[in-house]
């Protein structure tokens, strides 16, 4: 992990995109009526959008009801880590040209099940933070003096 001087550093948009490009798995957060759900998915970047595959079911049905999603990716090691959150709109790809473009991406399901539907997340916001691990500082009331 790269060295950062502050315990928590805000990442630039470009740093967020660079980190997203290094990973293959993230967490998709959906919200339908009163139910919030988080599922791990594998994904690939396509320009400044994210693409994943899914089967029919509650995840896909939920996206048709409320397309607003959050997507989170992170990585940690012994020294620190980072987290990137994408807020965006998810849409199942239906046009033949869109599907053909998505099929050409290096995106294969991790789980050996049929996932015929491609979904594209178009970001409306991206943010990230990098963390340096270490001991908790002493509180003022614990300071000697």
Descriptive overview:
This is Pyridoxamine 5'-phosphate oxidase family protein. This protein has 145 residues and is of the alpha+beta class. It is built from 3 helices and 8 strands; from the N terminus they run βαββββαββαβ. Strands 1, 2, 3, 4, 5, 6, 7 and 8 form an 8-stranded antiparallel β-sheet that branches. The N and C termini lie far apart (37 Å). The model has no long low-confidence stretch (mean pLDDT 90).
With helices defined by DSSP (H or I, 4 residues minimum), what is the helix count?
3
User: Helix/strand-derived class?
Assistant: alpha+beta
How can the largest sheet be summarized? 8 strands, antiparallel
Order of helices and strands: EHEEEEHEEHE
Multimerization status: single chain
Beta-strand residue fraction: over 45%
Q: Write down the Rg.
A: 18 Å
- Fraction of residues in helices? 10-25%
Shape: elongated
| Euclidean distance between termini CA atoms | 37 Å
List segments where confidence is low: pLDDT < 50 over at least 5 consecutive residues.
Answer: none
Task: Summarize this structure briefly.
This is Pyridoxamine 5'-phosphate oxidase family protein. The chain has 3 helices and 8 strands, in the order βαββββαββαβ.
């Amino acid at each position: 992990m790269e060295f950062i001087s502050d315990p928590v550093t805000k990442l630039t948009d470009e740093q967020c995109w660079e980190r997203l490009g290094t990973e293959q798995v993230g967490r998709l957060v959906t919200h339908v009526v009163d139910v919030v759900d988080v599922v791990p998915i594998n994904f690939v970047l396509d320009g400044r959008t994210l693409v994943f595959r899914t089967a029919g079911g509650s995840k896909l049905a939920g996206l048709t009801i409320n397309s607003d999603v959050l997507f989170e990716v992170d990585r940690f090691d012994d020294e620190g880590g980072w987290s990137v959150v994408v807020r965006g709109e998810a849409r199942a790809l239906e046009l033949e040209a869109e599907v053909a473009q998505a099929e050409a991406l290096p995106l294969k399901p991790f789980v050996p099940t049929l996932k015929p539907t491609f979904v594209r997340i178009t970001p409306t916001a991206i943010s990230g933070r990098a963390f340096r691990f270490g001991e908790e500082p002493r509180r003022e009331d614990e300071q000697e003096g």
